[in-house]
Design brief:
Elements lengths: L6 H11 L14 E4 L2 E2 L8 E3 L2 E5 H6 L5 E5 L2 E6 L2 E6 L4 E4 L2 E4 L5 E3 L2 E5 H8 L2 E5 L4 E5 L4 E6 L1 E2 L9 E2 L1 H13 L3 E3 L1 H9 L8 E8 L2 H14 L3 E5 L16 H10 L2 E5 L7 E2 L2 E2 L10 H23 L5 E3 L7 H10 L3 E3 L5 E2 L11 E2 L6 H10 L3
Parallel strand pairs: 1-13, 14-18, 14-26, 15-16, 17-18, 18-19, 19-20, 23-24
Antiparallel strand pairs: 1-2, 3-4, 4-11, 5-6, 6-7, 7-8, 8-9, 10-11, 12-13, 14-25, 21-22
Helix pairs in contact: 4-6, 4-10, 8-9
Length: 385
């Protein structure tokens, strides 16, 4: 998962082969280093300013990460990481990544028996995002793909519940702002393929989701998605397809098919008929009416299986993801969801999705009425870690 992990063995090899004369660090205060939001505590040599360049000790940084296969012979180092091959020669600024030439600011250097690599090298060769805050003297290295997941429900020009209803014009502004900021929308299927290791996500991915399957998704959101050529995933309550419930009408299977075929909408499960409560207990996460553990488990198993079956029957696609109604779930819910074939499940807890996020506890950020596009961006940034 971690693109920087190949650096650990690289450090060892460089320490063996590099003959550059040891250098002395400049006297300015050394920066603090954070990797994926966590501060790195160095044993002896920390990130150091050398000749105006920020140099970082590769071995300590790599301990936060994993291992890679490294081949070396006569001063040539080859680092194998997934699909990537990085090759370099000791004492040489030139680096080859998958045959493409990259140049380091300076060659690796030895400081107090530690191999120091220029910070820019980490960014360019290992696709990490590196930033430096001059005011706080902090270096941040992020090699995780962070995926914000936004949650919408209903669209209307009349706002009755500002927490779950927004105006179509607001939705348009949100999407336009996301696009202008460089975000690329993906679907749940694309997210799952990436988690499996069978798909590659675009730069700055973002997942737009809608819960319940209201007709307003088809009437208002779908045309905007098509116009802007952006994607969204809708979690539907399959028993309510095409029906008018006590709250809002739901789009039909025919409309769901139209959206699915367009390529701009992905349909997933919000249960078959478990989006309500008995007393204050959500059906999916609680035993009700005196059910024992077995009866509770079998009830939700039948519900989730039926939801998957109906989506496959009407849309010709497998449903791989579930959104928990009310964001409520239990250990049994997660167990059964996995057993019936779901590969991901979403809560309503605010946060982003990472490569190592719990598979059946994926976070989302609810978007209420009244937010501008820039305020949505601020929400995304607030819940990044």
């Amino acid at each position: 998962m971690k693109k920087l992990f190949s650096l650990s063995i690289f450090t060892f090899v460089c320490c063996m082969f590099l003959t550059t004369t040891p250098v002395t660090a400049e006297t300015s205060k050394n920066p603090d280093v954070f990797i994926n939001g966590n501060k790195v505590n160095f044993d002896d040599v920390s990130a150091t300013i050398l000749n105006g360049r920020t140099m970082i000790p590769v071995r300590k940084v790599s301990k936060v990460l994993a291992n890679a296969k490294v081949d070396y012979k006569k001063g040539n180092i080859k680092i194998h990481h997934g699909w990537n091959l990085i090759s370099m020669n000791v004492g040489n600024k030139k680096v080859l990544k998958n045959g493409k030439s990259l140049m380091m600011d300076v060659e690796p250097r030895i400081l107090k028996n530690r191999t120091m690599v220029p910070l820019r090298f980490i960014s360019e060769a290992f696709d990490a995002k590196v930033s430096w805050n001059g005011q706080t003297n902090v270096v941040s290295i992020n090699n995780e793909t962070t995926i914000p997941v936004l949650m919408y429900h209903h669209f209307s020009n009349t706002i009755s519940d500002g927490n779950t209803t927004i105006k179509p014009s607001e939705f348009r502004e949100h999407l336009q702002t996301l696009k202008s900021k460089g975000y690329t929308t993906i679907t749940v299927d694309e997210l799952i393929n990436n988690q499996r290791g069978t798909g590659i996500l675009p730069e700055n991915p973002i997942l737009i989701t809608m819960d319940d399957g209201y007709s307003s998704n088809y009437e208002y959101a779908f045309p905007i998605l098509k116009e802007l050529e952006m994607k969204a995933t809708i979690f539907v309550v399959t028993e309510e397809m095409g029906k008018k419930t006590y709250y809002n009408p739901h789009f039909s299977w025919e409309q769901a098919k139209e959206m699915q075929v367009s390529g701009f909408v992905d349909i997933q499960s919000h249960t078959n008929d478990s989006h309500y409560k008995v007393g204050n207990r959500a059906l999916l996460s609680s035993a009700i009416n005196g059910e024992d553990t077995y009866q509770y488990e079998e009830r939700i198993r039948k519900d989730l299986s039926k939801s998957k079956d109906l989506i496959e029957k009407h849309l010709g696609k497998e449903s791989l993801a579930l959104a928990y109604p009310y964001g409520s779930y239990s250990a049994t819910t997660k167990k059964v969801a996995k057993e019936v074939g779901f590969e991901a499940a979403f809560t309503v807890k605010k946060g982003h999705v990472y490569k190592d996020s719990p598979q059946y506890e994926l976070d989302r950020i609810n978007i209420p009425h009244g937010l501008s596009g820039n305020e949505v961006i601020q929400l995304i940034e607030r819940y990044a870690y």
